[in-house]
Amino acid sequence: MLRTEFPDAGERSPDELLAAYGSVLAETVESVGTGAVVDATDLDREAVDAAADGDVASLSLEDAMAVLAADPDRPDADALQAEAQDILLMGMTTAVMDVESLASGIDSQLEPKEIQQKIEGRYPMTLEEYALLHSYIESQRR
């Protein structure tokens, strides 16, 4: 997600990183309020309640960024999503990695074409998938 909030992403497992994302989203819901997040996003109350409980694995990256953007101290959801995608793309550049090597590194849990489409934002990505990619990419940076 946001560059300054997860500087040790490469040292965390995907599950640990997903839990950290869940904590940030839960803190956002707590500070802004469930009703305000529901009003500011396309999410229903059940999904926001799940985020408040840290249950975010199936939440899309787009929806997660909308939750974060409900905080008036953060940029809008589009800017946050662009930054999240940029973190992956720049990480791949720094690690000198293409989508084929990334797919191989995550034991082909996602296909190369699927990875490319998700990173570019042409296909939805869950936070669980984002954590998997983010953790691996950051662990390979040089």
Description of the structure:
The chain has 142 residues and is mainly α. 63% of the residues lie in helices and 0% in strands. It is built from eight helices and no strands. α1 crosses α3, α1 crosses α8 and α4 packs across α5. The longest helix has 19 residues. The chain is elongated, with a radius of gyration of 15 Å. The model has no long low-confidence stretch (mean pLDDT 93).
Strand portion:
under 5%
Main sheet: strands, sense, barrel: none
**End-to-end distance:** 20 Å
Estimate the mean pLDDT confidence: 93
Number of strands: 0
Taking pLDDT < 50 over at least 5 consecutive residues as the criterion, the unreliable ranges are: none
Count, helices = 8
Q: Based on Cα principal axes, name the global outline.
A: elongated
Helicity range = 55-70%
The succession of helices and strands, N to C, reads: HHHHHHHH
Structural class given helices, strands, pairing? mainly alpha
Integer-rounded radius of gyration: 15 Å
Can I get a quick summary?
With about 140 residues, this protein is an all-alpha fold. It is built from 8 helices and no strands.
Task: List the main descriptive attributes of the protein structure presented here.
142 residues; mainly alpha; 8 helices; 63% helix; 0% strand; elongated
SSE layout:
Elements lengths: L13 H19 L1 H7 L4 H8 L8 H9 L7 H18 L4 H7 L6 H8 L7 H13 L3
